[in-house]
Every structure is written in C-alpha cells, then in structure tokens.
Amino acid sequence: MAFQNIRGGEDGLTFIEILIVVAILGILFVMVFVALNSARKKSQDVKVRNDVRQMRLLAEEVFDNAGASYLNWKTNPLVSVQVATLVSDLVAAHGTPGAAQDDYVSLIDSRESEFCVSGKLVVPNNGDYWCTDASGRFFAVDIHCAEPATAAEPLICPGSTP
C-alpha cells in the first residue's frame, strides 16, 4: 500500500518546501558554528590563564633555588626553556603568527623581591590581561605589567594593591 499525498497529487517535496528545509539547516549550522567558535575562544583564555599560572610557578622555583631572588628569573637556565615554550603558547593562543611577543606577554624580572607576569586574554571579560605577581594572587587587569617609573614603586599587577 502506497502513501498518498494529502493534496492528492504526486509524492515528493515542492521547491518551496525544499527551500524551507535548506533555510532551517542553514540557521542550525550558523548557530552551531557560533557556539563552537565561542567555546574555542574561551578555551584559549583558559590556556592563557594556565600559562600565566605556570610562569608564576617557574618564578617561584627560581626564587627557591637562587637564594630568594626573582632577579632575571626568566633567563635562569633552570627554567628558560619552559619560559620560552610558555611565551610561545601565549602568543599562539591569539592565532597571530609572527606577532611580537610584547603584544601578548609581559614578563618583568628586574627586582630581587618582586616580579610581574601578564598574558593577554583572547576574550576579555573583566580585563584584557591575566596577571600574577610575587603576592601569588591572580588578577584580571586592563593593562599589562610594566616596569614602575621609580624604584620606590612596587612591581605588582596594575590596578592591584600590595
């Protein structure tokens, strides 16, 4: 027994029905694509945060092994390879091949008792950068770490208080 079309004509879809199905599928495809792209960018931010945390751990490792000093920790032979790898990861998180490291990562290691590391977030939420300093805390900040104007100013994440 064959199914009959309600309209009494031949079985099959009309051109309009096919267009409606294609439009619905197109809308669904766009919705999935936007959701996946957003999730990918958020995962890149998690990677940035984890890389900044790892940098803090490397600074602490040098501090413990270099007689309680953060001075030049990023070039210390103990961690220099890991630091270079993490810096590459932070730049790569933005998908900008050949971009300058300074656009995405700031590592300040010019003092014995303080340091500052910041990495640019892919999807800024409460700030454009994720930052850590010798206090061991993490902050979302609007600007990257920078060397203070005077030696008397603390070397901390911008916008945080010592």
| Strand arrangement in the largest pleated sheet | 1-2-3-4
Q: Major sheet, described briefly?
A: 4 strands, antiparallel
Helix count from the secondary structure assignment: 2
**Gross geometry:** elongated
- How much helicity do the residues have? 25-40%
Weakly predicted, low-confidence segments: none
Oligomer state of the chains in this structure: single chain
Radius of gyration: 26 Å
**Beginning-to-end CA distance, first to last residue:** 83 Å
Number of domains: 1
Total beta-strand segments: 4
Please specify the SSE layout and strand pairing.
Elements: H1 15-65, H2 80-92, E1 105-108, E2 116-120, E3 129-133, E4 138-141
Antiparallel strand pairs: 1-2, 2-3, 3-4
Q: Would you mind describing this structure in some detail?
A:
- The chain is an alpha+beta fold.
- The protein has one domain.
- It has helices at residues 15-65, 80-92, and strands at residues 105-108, 116-120, 129-133, 138-141.
- It has a four-stranded antiparallel beta sheet with strand order 1-2-3-4.
- The longest helix is centred in the first third of the chain and has 51 residues, at 15-65.
- The protein is elongated.
Please summarize what this structure is.
The protein has 162 residues and is of the alpha+beta class. It is 40% helix and 11% strand.
Keywords:
alpha+beta
